[in-house]
Structures are given as C-alpha cells and as structure tokens.
Amino acid sequence: MFRKGEEILSIYGYSRVSTSNQDYKTQIQKLEQAGAEKIFSEKYTGTKKEGRKELEELLSIVKTGDKVLVTKIDRLARSIVDLNSIISSLNNLGVTITFLDNALTFEPNKSDSMQTLMMNMLGSFAQFERDLIVTRTQEGKQWHRANNKNYREGRPKRVLNDKYKHALELMETNSMREVERKTGISLSTLKRIKKQAKEEQLLNEK
Question: Which residues catalyse the reaction (predicted)?
C-alpha cells in the first residue's frame, strides 16, 4: 500500500496456473517480493477472461492509481485479443500493470513512445489473431462442403436417443400436439427430429 497525496493506493498481484497439479508458490513469492499486498490466484485452463472469478474480482475492486503485478504475460492471458482487452480495461480504470519477468509496464494516460508502440503491436496482433480465426473457420467450412455431402452449417444435429426415437414412433399414430403432451418434447424439437430422422432414413415418409 502506498500514498498519493492523501489517497491510499494499493498494489495487487495476480497469479494463475492452468492445471490442477501446478501450484502458485513461485509466482506468489515473486509478487510478494515486488510489493503485492493482496494476491488473486486461480486455476483456469481457458484463454478468455470470462469465467475467471479471481480476475473478475480484481477488475471490480481496482481504482485509479492502483498497481497490478503479474509474473509473466501468459499468466494473465493466453490470447493476444484477451491480453489487449485486459490491459486496456486496467489502463482505462487508471491502473498500472507490470509484468515482472517480461520487464513490461503499461501505465494509464502515459505518452510514452515505447508503450504506445507495444499497445499498437498488441492491437495489430489481436486483429491478426481474429482474422486468422475467421480464415481458418472459413477454410474449414469450405473443406467440409467439398468433402462431406451431408455437411450443413449452423446448429449441429441432435443425437436421436431413445427418448427421441420413442417420440418418432408415436408420431406415426399420433399428432404432433399429442406427442408433445405425452413426451414433454417441444413442438419445434419434434419437427427438427422428424426432419432429421427423414434425412437419416429412420422414419418413412407418411
């Protein structure tokens, strides 16, 4: 904790491991040695900040003038897009973030040519990453269209489990409304599985 005028500001640390058998000891030790007073630690394997409760709590309590310490960039984010988003969020709140092992610091409202260059590079890499994802997705769709005649975009087909197969049998002698009442399956779902069953030749056309 440090003072800026009469205002008391805080130094926070953030540590993350991606597997259950890893621990935070080394990270926490470095963060404490660098002055972190409160450390948020979590085990999370994803690449996005959503669902990371400790990170979300940290972002909710920091205020202008506070500092956040992280040992390495990949401990905060594994996606350039997400990294850029988190750094921007902290800087917009007036918070400074430092990556100890990378010797990088991003300060809010600082007209520093190197920091500006780094943020622009992160932004460019973020856009490149988004474009790459879109390109790979489109290429994947094109490949499936060319090599799989049954390929359809959009919602994947439901697995026709025993409940759905029973509903299909009931459809042969009952109206859709009656089948809905007897099975509890919605009309929209019944229509979809009927169409799917016809496509898969599990139900003869009436």
Answer: 18
**pLDDT score at 2:** 55
Q: Is 18 an annotated catalytic residue?
A: yes
> pLDDT tens across 116-145, in order?
677 677 656 656 666 777 777 777 777 777
Query: How many C-beta neighbours within 10 Å does residue 86 have?
Result: 22
Nearest to 74 by CA among 86, 58, 62: 86
Q: Find out if CATH 3.40.50.970 is the number for domain 2-124.
A: no
Confidence band (pLDDT; 50, 70, 90) for 203? Answer: very low
Residues 6+ apart with CB under 8 A from 8: 1, 2
- How many residues would you count in the chain? 206
- E-strand stretches of the chain: 2-4, 7-9, 11-17, 38-43, 67-70, 96-99, 104-106
Q: What is the mean pLDDT of residues 3-22?
A: 76
Domain ranges within the chain, ordered by starting residue = 2-124, 162-199
Q: CA-CA distance, 128 to 167, in Å (whole number)?
A: 48
For residue 150, the tally of other CB atoms under 10 A from its CB is: 8
pLDDT tens digits for range 163-190 = 888 888 898 899 988 998 888 888 888 8
Which run of H or E residues covers position 116?
helix 113-147
